[in-house]
Structures are given as structure tokens and as C-alpha cells.
Amino acid sequence: QQQVKQSPQSLIVQKGGISIINCAYENTAFDYFPWYQQFPGKGPALLIAIRPDVSEKKEGRFTISFNKSAKQFSLHIMDSQPGDSATYFCAAEFNDYKLSFGAGTTVTVRA
Amino acid sequence: NAGVMQNPRHLVRRRGQEARLRCSPMKGHSHVYWYRQLPEEGLKFMVYLQKENIIDESGMPKERFSAEFPKEGPSILRIQQVVRGDSAAYFCASSPSDRGSYEQYFGPGTRLTVT
What we know:
Shape of chain A: globular
Oligomer: heterodimer
Shape of chain B: globular
Number of helices of chain B: 0
Distance between the termini of chain A: 38 Å
């Protein structure tokens, strides 16, 4: 049973474009929603995160939008760069440590 | 300041053999978490350990899998009598406390292939 559903599975964007990744969850006990970036051969690294009492959080070119009533959240990568090419995972946490991950989105930024 | 270290990075085992995966947490971290990533899937929580204690093993398969984090030395994830379905990437993460996953830092993973 996948608790966090992520789409699309992959996307290709031109340099300077916007990448958008969507996630949805069912468990209302989740109280923290991080996004991870993973490069080939590396472990996931925390990119940006949001709590459900906030509807949007922005850090540099990365923005999370959160819709609590719809139980959905998304990652927007503005002005996408070739160095952003990676796999992105959304996740949801409860009990302060247990993470449930989405299946991942492979982003390819074409120069 | 070394990050989380995992070894081996790649491990090949024949069906029926044992696999031992090691995780050395970051300095000052006493909490370790193991996750499994199957092909085309996200990471799935397996077990959470503190020194000499298993705190939450709700994600561990009931048979053949075990984990420990001794007082001295790395955390070990042990898989007995491996089967092809065990082929996956196994990641560990460490944190200095249990106050939030934002404190979890992931290692590079061990890719297990069962032939």
C-alpha cells in the first residue's frame, strides 16, 4: 500500500523552464512533507520541506505548494538548470521519524 | 566531517547466501534508520534503531531480516537466505535525535544483487 502517490514518473524540461511534480497522500496523521533530491549513485538529500499549516514555501528556485484540504502538495523548480537533473522524491512523515516516500520523478533538464 | 558511510556499495549474492550490510552513522549521531528501495519505487522504511535498541521494526519482513546497532561499531542489516526479490538498494540514514526526519542524513546506499 503506497501512502504517497507521486507523478509524473519522469519529465523533460528545457533549460530555464519550470518543472512541476505532484504528490498526494491519504493519511491525515502526516505532519511534515519533505522533498528529496537524489543523484545517481548517491543517497537522497533533503531539498525543501513544509508543514501543513503553511500553504507555500519558497527557497531559491524551489517552491512547495501545499493544499491540506485536497491532501496534495507539489514541487516547482523555476528556471530549471542542467544541474537540477536528478530524481526527486516527495515524502510524508509521522511520529517524528518515519518517512513514507513517493515513487520518484526523474527530471532531465536539456541545455 | 564524514557523512553517513555504507559498505559495501555493491554486493552480489547467490540465492540462499547471507548478506550483511553495514552503516556507520555521522559523528555524534546515535539514531539509525534503514530503508529499502526497489526498482522504480520510492524508499520504504524498514527499521529504526538506537544504540543497542530496536525502536521500530514495523517495516522489516518477518523472516530472514534482522538489524542491530551495537554499542560499538556500525549498524548491521542482515539478510539470511537471500532470494531474488531481495535485490534492491538499501539506504541507511542517521540523526542526532528522534525529533524529526529533517535531521536524517542518508548514506550512498548498498546495491544488493541476488543471482
